[in-house]
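Dear colleague,

Thank you for sharing your sequence with our group. We've completed the structure prediction you requested, and as agreed, I am returning the results in plain text so they can be pasted directly into your records. Please verify that the sequence below matches your submission; if there's any discrepancy, let me know and we will rerun it promptly.
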Amino acid sequence: MQSQILKIDATDWSQVHGCDEWTAAVEAGKVLYFPQLRFALSDQEKTLLRPDVRDPKTRNISLNVNGSIKGVAGDAATQAAVAAMVARFREQATALIAGLFPEYMPVVRMAPTSYRPSQVETRAQSWRADDKRMHVDAFPSRPNYGERILRVFTNVNPDGQPRVWRVGEPFEDVARKFLPRAKPYSAWQAKALELLHVTKSYRSEYDHLMLQLHDGMKGDLDYQKNAPQETVPFAAGSTWVCFSDQAVHAVMSGQYMLEQTLFLPPGSEYDPAASPLSILTRMKGRPLVDVAQR
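Please find the predicted C-alpha cells below.
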C-alpha cells in the first residue's frame, strides 16, 4: 500500500503556505504530517500537563466556540489557565489551516477545541467507541449530510512519547469492501430516530452509510488485523492534519494532545469529486442527501 502520510517541513504555524500537492493529498484522505511544527508551551502551561487536570466525569477538556471551558478539574485560576492555553492553540491551528487551504476559510464552521491529557492505552470503551480500532469518523446522533471533518492535532507530550496511530487504506477501497455489507437505508426508521430524539436531525442515507462503514470496520477483527495499514508514531512536538471522515485511522497510544476541528460544507473542497459523499454517491448511483433536509 502506498503510504498515506505526507511529511512537510515547517516550524512556524503562520508561515505555512499550501500547494496543489498537499491539497490533493489531504482531500484524497492522506495525513499531512509536520514533524517539526511544535506547539511551544510556557513554563506555566507545562504545569497543566497532568492527567488530574481533567474532570474524571468528562472524556476530554473542551473549549467551546464562545470561549467557555468545560471538563477542567480545579479552581478558577486553573480553569482560566487551561482555557488560555487551548485558545492559543486554536489561534495557531486556525492560522495553519488558513495558510494551507485559504479557500476553506470563508465557509468553515469552528468546532470546540479539545485538550486530551489522558493516556489512550488505559481508556476502557465499547467496541463501537474504541478508537484503537481503525475507522472513519461518523456521528451516530448528529447527521452532517456530507459536511467534512477537518482536524488539526498536536502532540505536546513532555516526556517525548509519540502519539501512535494506525493509518489504513484509501477511503474508496474501504467503501468497496464494506458497502456491500451495509444494512439497507430506511427513510421511516430515520424519521423515527429523529422523532424519538435519538438523532438531532433526520439521518440521511449518506450518514447511514458512513455509520455502516464505521461500525463495519470496527466490528471486523480480521480486517483490523490484516487490512493494509501502517503504524505511524507522531512524535512529541509534531502536528498533523487530516479529514478524519476520510482518513482511515486508529489511535493506539499516547498522552497529552491538543485538537482542533473545523467543519467544511460539502462541495467546498478544492476537488469535491474526491469527497466521501461523492465517492459513495457514485458507488450507489443515486443522490444520498436530500438538499431540502439539510
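Summary note from our side: The radius of gyration is 19 Å.

Kind regards,
the structure core
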